[in-house]
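Hey, I was hoping to borrow your eyes for a little while. I'm sending you its amino acid sequence along with the C-alpha cells. Take your time with it, there's no hurry, and the full record follows here.
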Amino acid sequence: MDQALTVSDVETVAVESAGTSMGAAIDQAADNKVRVLLTRDGKPVAAIVPIEDYEALETIEDAHDAEMFREAMAAWEAAGRPPGIPHEEVLAEYGIAFE
C-alpha cells in the first residue's frame, strides 16, 4: 500500500481548551487534512490526524513488523533452528493449567 502523506498544515490546540474546540479540531483533520497537535503546558502530548495519516502509519508499522519477523526467522534458521522452551514449561511458569 503506497500512500503519500499530503498534509497541508499543522494546528496546535492546548489540552486545557480542547473541550471547546475538539469538534473543530476533528473537522480540521477530517475535512482539511490538517494535523492537530494537542499540547499541555506548551508541550506536545497527543495529536489528531487525518485518517490517511493513521492508515499510512499502520502500513509502515506492519511492514516494519514483517521485516523484524523475517530477520528473526533468518537468525533462528542460521543458528540451526535451536529448540525453544517447551509449552509445558511456559504454562507452569505462568501458573496456567488446563483441565
Summary: The first helix runs from residue 15 to 32. Residues 9-93 form a domain with the YefM-like fold fold (CATH 3.40.1620.10). The chain has a mean pLDDT of 86. Helices lie at 15-32, 51-78, 87-93.
